[in-house]
Amino acid sequence: MADQASHVGPYPEGVPCWVDAQLPDLEAGKRFYGGLFGWTFGEGYGTSVWAYKEGEPVAALAPKVNGRMPTVWTLHFATPDATALAERIETHGGRLITTPTRLGPLGATALATDPESAVFGIWQPGTHQGFGRRHEPGTFAWAELYARDTKVANDFYGALFHDALFGPGASPDFGRADLAEVFPAEMPPHFLVHFGVTDAEEALGTVQRLGGRVQVPPFDASYGRVAVVTDDQGASFALLQR
User: Where is the VOC domain positioned along the sequence (predicted)?
Assistant: First the structure.
């Protein structure tokens, strides 16, 4: 997908446009992801840092504000109007964790859950459009929603993002799967962020060398070869070899 690696301009509504991780130790996060993906880092908004690949923004790392927050990667969907989308989320059975908030000139964001309590973010761009690069090694490649009831998920996200999922030329960058096919029954529904790698086995070795661990060994999915891992602070993500 090299032809789609570099991106300019706002993403269509419903397309994943940004990911961030909330971590206890920001410096440790920079060492881990810099070592795994070759990311460099610069100042982000507030206390966060932005990760860059070949000079383009690809993700953010942020410190957890309290120990009760999960150590997790969060997926954000693009929207031209965060307030209107927030209203639709609640109308269709979701719940707002935070109401739309403007982050200076960068844009506006909110956190929400779907009807099964899977957490996601929304992003209305200002000066920050989202991923500067994607669909290549070391950048966002896919997101999979692991749901208890995929019909509930399809109905909810189809109502919110019909054109991105089902419209002409749709390229949603996220799928829906049965939670029980990959994870233990007690695992809550969640989005799993996938980063591209050239060689999944080699990348798994690097994850372990950097202090991470393998959560689910490599398996074949419809969109590529996937392994689920955690970083050295417990945040889960997936490696995707196309």
Answer: 15-125
